[in-house]
């Protein structure tokens, strides 16, 4: 039996149940029944994305969906053309249409001032969205799995990320048409599935280069945590679920109070100021106030609102620091007054005389 005609019921029972579990997680927890849709699978040829392509293809056969694949060669390794060839040979017997492209990521990184990893990420998602739009796919499937999620949580902790973003990457981003159906699946389970299916994969040697923070977390920090707690990946999955529940709760609460923020014109240049009324602030618990500050600051202009600044602003509000202010990146200022907290972009030239 060739790969194209292989069906879910032809797999060993354990492998078939594994595939069905991936589909169930996506439908019930992520809210996306991808096997019934036209999916574009990002496939590098590594174990995770190879497993995702095989699983998506098998599940689509049961639900009437369609699977296409996309591969971006970053031109960073001499062997990268062999990865592209491997993905082509993977897709052909499955009858999966492949969209493959080669880009010079090193040149893009130099031109943009970004690091190689960030430039590659930006180029990859831009490529995937372009292909998705070109072929009319409903959703892009990417192969981040539970080990990746645990690494992402640790990296966010190191950067000082607050809650609930500390729970890690989104499983489903409808705005970007992006789905991570393997997100709570350990890497070892995916490799077991491939072995059962007699499906080889390719290893990217750059993933073993400890010069990058992510790889040090992957090969040094996470294994040490697993040695101390063999169930650490289960803990990472619980943290992700708890974060999602909290985010859903606070997002709904924030949506109720944001319309009460007043938009005002402050001068002849028609500069805008947003006023969070005192009445609104008094009705909000501290966790909601912090989220409200962040949302209003982000609506005012570019520049990340750092956690320390948000806590300082809330402290001034609670201690009635009328006339005092906190500056945020992007020349944004939040000033305490008797009527509430006013947020606006400051004109540095005018301020300096």
Tag the structure with descriptive keywords.
353 residues; alpha/beta; Rossmann fold; Uridine Diphospho-n-acetylenolpyruvylglucosamine Reductase, domain 3; 6-stranded mixed sheet; 5-stranded antiparallel sheet; 13 helices; 15% strand; elongated
How many domain modules? 2
Please provide the count of β strands. Answer: 11
* Largest sheet, strands/sense/barrel: 6 strands, mixed
Beta-strand content bin = 5-15%
Class from helix and strand fractions: alpha/beta
Q: Give helix and strand order, one letter per element, not per position.
A: HEHEHEHHEHEEHHHEEHHHEEEH
Overall CATH class of the largest domain: Alpha Beta
CATH topology (fold) name of the largest domain: Rossmann fold
What is the CATH superfamily of the largest domain? Answer: HUPs
Poorly predicted parts: none
First CA to last CA: what distance?
A: 79 Å
Note the total helix count. Answer: 13
Helix content: 40-55%
Proper CATH architecture of the largest domain: 3-Layer(aba) Sandwich
Strand numbers in spatial order across the main sheet:
3-2-1-4-6-5
Query: How large is the radius of gyration?
Result: 24 Å
Shape: elongated
What integer is the average pLDDT? 93
